[in-house]
Each structure stands twice: as structure tokens, then as C-alpha cells.
Design brief:
- There is one protein chain.
- The chain is mainly α.
- It has helices at 17-31, 37-51, 57-68.
């Protein structure tokens, strides 16, 4: 950004800190009083485990490759081991 504006232009700064704080407060309020972040995380981990369970050898190799590349969470081929 240039320090001095051209003709007909004005530099301005927009601080979104207050708006971001309001947005976050609205999200937490929308979640409600009964939202349990620990239970939500456990549910997500269980869903992930189930999604990648029972993979055949080729699927496990693909999963390991994608996890190592950072495309999927994990990085350990054991994460995709069948149960």
C-alpha cells in the first residue's frame, strides 16, 4: 500500500477487532449452554476413526500418503488401521 494516496483517494484503516470479538461471542451464544467442547472433540475423533477404519492395503497406502502430505490429519499409517 502506498503511503500517500493519489488524487481523489484517501487512505484509511479499518480495525475489525471489535467486530471479530462480537462474531465470536455470537458463535458461543449460538452453541448454547449445553455445548460440551470435550464431548464434541471426542465425537469428531470417533467419526474420524470410523471413517478410516477397515481400509484395504491400497487404501491404507493412499491414506498414509495423504496424511504425510498434510492433506489428511494423522501422518501415522496406524491411524488408518482396521479395527
Amino acid at each position: 500500500m502506498h503511503d500517500s494516496p493519489g488524487p481523489g483517494h484517501v487512505n484509511f484503516t479499518l480495525d475489525l477487532t471489535l467486530e471479530e470479538a462480537r462474531r465470536r461471542a455470537e458463535v458461543v451464544a449460538a452453541l448454547g449452554d449445553d455445548w460440551d467442547p470435550v464431548a464434541a472433540l471426542r465425537s469428531e475423533e470417533e467419526a474420524h476413526r470410523l471413517l478410516y477404519s477397515g481400509l484395504d492395503a491400497e487404501q491404507q497406502r493412499t491414506y498414509a500418503m495423504l496424511a504425510a502430505a498434510g492433506v489428511l490429519p494423522g501422518g501415522d499409517a496406524g491411524d488408518a488401521a482396521p479395527h
